[in-house]
Prior knowledge:
The chain has 8 helices and 13 strands. The chain is of the alpha/beta class.
Amino acid sequence: MEFNVIRDGLTLAGIYEPAPEPNGTIAILFHGFISDRGYTPTALLEQLAQRLRTVGVGTVRFDFNGCGHSDGDFANMTVLNEIADAQAVLTAVQTRLAPKQIDLLGHSQGGVVASMLAGYNADLIHKLVLMAPAATLKDDALAGHTRGLVYDPQHIPAQLPLGHGKALGGFYLRTAQLLPIYETAQNFSGPVCLIHGDDDQIVAYSASQHYDAVYQDSTLHLLPGASHKLDGAARDDVLRLATDFIKD
């Protein structure tokens, strides 16, 4: 069912899919950079949500601002306002659905958002799954190369063209340079499942190794030959690892 959320005047397009035999847990799923909540049967979050519902976990998925069917201009997107999006969705899940437990699952930049949201709400989150979490986005912004873009990190322009009619805002990069990603994430002391491909050409798996080092209760799964999309032969492993972790 539709699960739209308003954040600072923007409507975030969301969907709530209850489990046929609910166990009281709701999982919120976060998509990555230039992505969406998943509208096709092959989409990672779509498949993950479907699998979670078979073990009694209801799911909420949504499009971040400027993505998918949500309001906003992608050029205004930052990790910080994606965290604000995620916080608004978390609050809506608490108030509208009143679950016994809330778990967070994030892929790529959505993994960074999930990790920081859990750090800010350590008393509210039960479990955390980070799939190819893109914490290297901070290092990339400091070095002046982000997703194929090259720029002077000391003099960042207002916008950079990404192609396909999209532009990346300079403020995204300026804030990325100063994000306290691991410092915030490590405030969460609950169970964490880390999943990363060892052939990820977009986010080095050292990001997940760093998360594994700062968390108190984490398990890292490095998948041989898996890419950043965690597709192909690796997809079944991702779905199994995440679902088994959440249902236990």
